[in-house]
Structures are given as structure tokens and as C-alpha cells.
Amino acid sequence: MRLPVLVFDIETMTDLKSGAHLYGLNLPEADLEQALTKLRRQETGIDFQRLPLHEIVCISGLWIDELGAMKLFSFSREQYSEAEILKKFLSIFDKKHPTLVSWNGSQFDLPVILFRAMYHGLSASSLFDQGEIDHQKKYNNYQNRYHHRHVDLMDVMAMFNLRHFQKLDDVAHLFGFPGKRGDGGYHVPEYVRLQQWQDLTGYCEGDVLNTWLIYLRWLLLKGQLQLQEHQAWIQASIQLLQAHPQHTDFLKIWRETSQQTEFTASDFHHLN
Fold first, then answer.
1. Does 33 map to a domain?
2. Which string of DSSP letters, residue by residue, matches 79-147?
3. Is the N or C terminus of the chain more exposed, i.e. has fewer CB atoms within 10 Å?
4. Average pLDDT over residues 65-93
């Protein structure tokens, strides 16, 4: 494993102000989202809003430093504006050049970050440089799907074939991990409206944790981790969660779900 590693995920909701400006809508805020959804259905047949209109309300990450120390964190609208969330996240890349790990990050998270950073007039050369500034990034940058600086697990596990794309929730359950544990993604706007910040960050961090556990299994498959190393990282992840009371439920469901998959069942043998 090439350290440091940053596993990340974002949560978004529709930017009503920008949507109204884009479509020339003069409606009360209460009616805007319904109008934007209707317009999107007319355009594409689906509700999923175009990427530039995804306002970021949370970015969560799991940071593993050069010595293997692990830190779980979130930047959310509880404390920061969208621009401040982006500034804090992007500043990580000014200081370090981690291996970036995501699920569908190439198709969603990074393009949304790009659009929203441009919307706020931010600079993010450390993340988006493709060799124009740092010549080495011409051959290994965060955008090229065949480079290893950013590992989009959904993409690489589908062998870069969109017909083989899988949902994070399904793969996590298949491997004996907790998965998304409900339909929290549909409730992100409600979490923000009701200021349920712990629910918001808990949901986003849950996706990060599932992605991390799948990444460890991916490294085992690739031979970049030996079995004993994989087991050591799993135990370190359990210890991390034991120190985060807000993830007691994640740990409990992981222990239960692990018993449905023979290989993963050994994750908690030391606690029996």
C-alpha cells in the first residue's frame, strides 16, 4: 500500500439558487426543487440532477499517514460554508500527495468538486494538475482513470467497463461489510434542513468506511497486501471504530454481517 492514503466521499443536495438562475425560474424556494426535478426528468428521464447543481454539504475522509496512523474526519455545513468545506479538503493536497480512494469518484465526486470549486473561484492545482505545472503528473495524476494516484474502486473492479459497475452497498454486503444501512442518501437534504449533523456525517463516514474495507480486499487481491497485513489493517480499523462512539452501530452491523461471508467471519474472532 502506497501511503499516505485518503479514502473520501461527498454528500450533496440540489443548489436551488444556481438551478433557478440556470433555468430562469422565478419561484418561491419551496417550489424550486420540484420544478428543477421536473425539468431534469424532461431532459433525461431521471431525477438525478446535473453535476454542477450538486451543492456539497459534507466531505468525509479516512486518512492513513505514512506511519499507518488512521484518522476519520468530516467537514460539513454544521460549521462551514460550501466554499470553506472545499478549501479545507483541497488544502490536504497542497501539503501531501496521497493515494486517493473512492467509490464512483471519477464519475461523481471529483467532477462535482471541480464544478463547485470553479463556482467559488478556488484554485486546486495539486488535485487537478495533469502535468502543466508538475511534469511528473503527466504520467500519474488524479484524473486519468488508468493511473494509480486515484483509485476509483467502482471503476477498477468493473475493469473500466460501465456495464459491470456495481453499487457500493451491494459489494459491501457481498463481502460481509455493513453497507449503507438504510436509505440515508435520500435524506441528506432533510438532515441539512433539520440540522441533523451527526446523521449527515455518520452517513458519509459510513460510505468512507465501506470503501476502505473494500479497498483492503482489493489490495489483497492484487498482491499489494499479504494476508497477515490485511488482517492487521482490519484489526486497526476495528480499533479505530471502537474509539468513535458514533460508529457503534457500524461496528455492530459489521460483526453481524461478517458471519454471512466465510472469509470475513474471521474479522471478529479475537473478540469471541
1. no
2. T--HHHHHHHHHHHHHH--PEEEESSIIIIIHHHHHHHHHHTT---HHHH-SSSSSGGGGTS-SS-TTS
3. C
4. 97
Element (H, E) at 178: none
| Mean pLDDT to the nearest integer, 205-216 | 98
Does 28 sit behind a cis peptide bond, omega within 30 degrees of 0 on the bond before it?
no
43 occurs within a structural domain: no
The pTM is what?
A: 0.95
CA 127 → CA 82, 106, 178, distances in Å? 18, 13, 30
Asked whether 137 and 129 are in contact (CB, 8 A), the reply is yes
Q: Is residue 211 domain-resident?
A: yes
**Residues 91-119: pLDDT tens digits?**
999 989 999 999 999 999 999 999 999 99
Read off the C-alpha cell for 57: 454539504
Residue 195: alpha-carbon gap to chain centroid? 21
112 lies in which domain range?
5-10+61-259
Backbone angles phi, psi at 49, to 5 degrees: -75, 150
Q: Does residue 45 come out as left (phi exceeding 0), alpha (psi in the -120 to 50 range) or beta?
A: left
Opening angle at CA 209, ends 117 and 189, nearest 5 = 50
DSSP type of residue 7: E
CATH code of residue 83 = 3.30.420
Judge whether 80 lies within some domain.
yes
Q: Distance (Å, rounded) from C-alpha 266 to C-alpha 85? A: 38
